[in-house]
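User: My collaborator sent over this chain with a note saying "see what the structure looks like." That's all I know about it. Can you take a look?
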Amino acid sequence: MCKAVSEGSIDFYKQRKLKEALYMAAERGHVEYITHFLTSSSYPILDFRYKNDQKLLQIAAESRHYNVYNIICEFLRKPDKDGLNKSEYGQHSDKLKKAMEYKDNLDNNILHTVARITPLSQIDHIQGAILQMQRELQWFKEVESIAEPKDCESVNKDNKTPRKVFKENHKELGKEAENSMKETATSCTVVGALIVTIMFAAAFTVPGENDKNDEKTDLPIFLTNKVFTTFIVSDAISLFSSTTSVIMFLGILTSRYSEDDFHKSLPTKMIIGLFTLFLSIATMMIVFSCGLYIILDGKSSIVIPSILLASVPVASFIWMQFPLLKDLSISTFGQGVFDRKQKNLF
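Assistant: Without extra context I'll predict from the sequence alone. Here is the result:
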């Protein structure tokens, strides 16, 4: 198809087939196909109009395919005819500006398009309403970051700005994400509060007795034991980390839950809360194991199985909560969905 297009003008039938192929490529994220046409053909494929008079960039944004979206944006960022690369001066090329302000037959620009959830949006593969809401915000803010201020305040035929369209279209998803976050935070708050209570009591209920021979200090008799030191340090870590987790989860429960909170604020609190809760559970098991080792010194047949059983709660927590913690961390602090590996292709 690229060879046929490169030969010159094509008839209506061939152009229709080409438009269908490019539409399907943008919808399904076939970046290699579109890249081949952008680099090997002078045919104006980015000016093609599809359903509702949308162009290829709008379809890529609506389909949530960051690779196709990035490759088209980088192509439009190429130096203008005068040879000036405006991106070096913090500006966008004239081609990219025109593409961002272009409107379809409903007067929707690309910000209106990305603010809507449609069958093309393909967010069902993302597990959990929290991650879905965060990904949608990342998409909207990514497009908003390269749009002109007038595009952000532009209204469509329904007299709605992109931000208003986003709020209306994500109302149900935001409510679902809010409920999911509150349920998780409530459950974890109860667990964290129990650990705080237990670890606070354990700090003053040390194994063994105090040294009655030393009336001045009356220190624990196991004070010089390295295992006892591990017991005290682990207890302190568990107490402080569980207290931190409770504070983080309380912060989630008392949040106002606006759309922008799901972008960084709430996910960050959830990450810190889950990590510190895991740390408190792990160190609590270490405290339990050290206490058994000190009290049952020499009885390895009881101590070793007990220590092995103490690892079960830690492994269970990792199995159930680690996937959420990992996905949230990658989505919030990782490279994200918008990498720039394609920028050197042009």
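A starting point for your reply to your collaborator: Residues 174-333 form one domain.
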